[in-house]
């Protein structure tokens, strides 16, 4: 059994308003988003593009609804830019998250990333780092991780479609060449599945490195179309490749069993970006919350 007092359930605002495509869900307000999150039964969330930049305003709105911030996305460019540039922006994000009481930050390496480019296929145009770029990335992550740890944070690396760290092999290379005390994984069930990988593999190989969990399901029929059509990431999202846990083909029963087996502690965070005009965010949030309750009794 999961220790209920050591597991927190959250949901990302990306189901309400999309960070990569702001027009997707542009009609949904920040207040509606966090109110519906709370009504659906979640106690935490990540930071979206409509969230107030003023931490006092944001915290007051969250406190009113019994919500807290779990983590925040951070785009790094360690493979292609001087480390100091990334560190400067990283410290700003830590300052922001520290005020909000969070202790996780999700780092995604965006050097050459095609995830936000509508014109480029995530299959034909995916980046592959050189050995030198891999060294810069891993060395930079170790530095960021050490800096974050000194402030009570865990750096959780987010493998992602359309980036240089997408596949199991690339994730292994990153894990094996970074410090286990300073660099953890933002484990995403949907991205491994979309990449044609077995999400259970990483859980079993690096249980001690799982710092944050994104619960994302995948619609198998849309995945097939995306793969055969060699779609861009943005088209894949708009067409409904991703959905909430329990609404797709991901084997969450085995994933939850594995997380429970090694005693995972921290956030289980639903992150299912899709078109809110097609998939009502509140309805899908409730679906996800009910499914999690049925699966792990939390």
Automatic annotation (TrEMBL):
Its EC number is 4.2.1.44. SUPFAM superfamilies: Xylose isomerase-like (SSF51658). The keyword Lyase applies. Its cofactor is glutathione; Co(2+); Mn(2+). One of its GO terms (biological process) is inositol catabolic process. It catalyses: scyllo-inosose = 3D-3,5/4-trihydroxycyclohexane-1,2-dione + H2O. Signal peptide: none annotated. It comes from the Bacteria. Belongs to the IolE/MocC family. The keyword Nuclease does not apply. It is an enzyme of class 4 (lyase). It holds the Pfam family AP_endonuc_2. InterPro entries: IolE, IolE/MocC, IolE/XylAMocC-like, Xyl_isomerase-like_sf, Xyl_isomerase-like_TIM-brl. PANTHER family: HYDROXYPYRUVATE ISOMERASE, INOSOSE DEHYDRATASE. One of its GO terms (molecular function) is myo-inosose-2 dehydratase activity. Pathway: Polyol metabolism; myo-inositol degradation into acetyl-CoA; acetyl-CoA from myo-inositol: step 2/7. This is Inosose dehydratase. Residues 37-286 form the Xylose isomerase-like TIM barrel domain. Keywords: Cobalt, Lyase, Manganese. HAMAP family: IolE.
């Amino acid at each position: 059994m999961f220790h209920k007092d050591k597991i927190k359930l959250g949901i990302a605002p990306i189901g309400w308003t999309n960070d990569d495509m702001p027009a997707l869900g542009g009609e949904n307000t920040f207040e509606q988003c966090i109110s519906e999150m709370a009504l659906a039964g979640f106690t935490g969330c990540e930071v979206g593009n409509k969230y107030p930049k003023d931490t006092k305003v944001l915290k007051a709105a969250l406190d009113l609804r019994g919500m807290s911030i779990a983590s925040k996305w951070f785009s790094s460019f360690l493979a292609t830019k001087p480390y100091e540039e990334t560190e400067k922006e990283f410290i700003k994000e830590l300052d922001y998250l520290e005020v909000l009481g969070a202790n996780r930050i999700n780092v995604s390496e965006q050097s050459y990333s095609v995830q936000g480019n509508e014109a480029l296929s995530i299959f034909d145009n995916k980046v592959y780092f050189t050995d030198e770029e891999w060294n810069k990335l891993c060395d930079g992550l170790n530095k960021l991780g050490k800096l974050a740890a000194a402030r009570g944070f865990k750096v959780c690396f987010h493998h992602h479609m359309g980036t240089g760290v997408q596949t199991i092999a690339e994730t292994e290379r990153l894990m094996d060449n970074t410090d286990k005390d300073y660099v953890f994984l933002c484990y995403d069930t949907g991205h491994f599945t979309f990449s044609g990988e077995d999400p259970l593999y990483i859980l079993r190989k690096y249980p001690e490195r799982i710092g944050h969990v994104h619960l994302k399901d995948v619609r198998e029929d849309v995945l097939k179309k995306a793969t055969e059509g060699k779609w861009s990431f943005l088209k894949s999202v708009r067409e409904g490749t991703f959905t909430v846990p329990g609404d797709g083909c991901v084997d969450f029963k085995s994933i939850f069993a594995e997380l429970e087996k090694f005693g995972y502690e921290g956030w289980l965070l639903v992150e299912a970006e899709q078109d809110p005009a097609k998939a009502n965010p509140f309805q899908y949030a409730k679906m996800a919350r009910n499914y999690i309750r049925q699966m792990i009794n939390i």
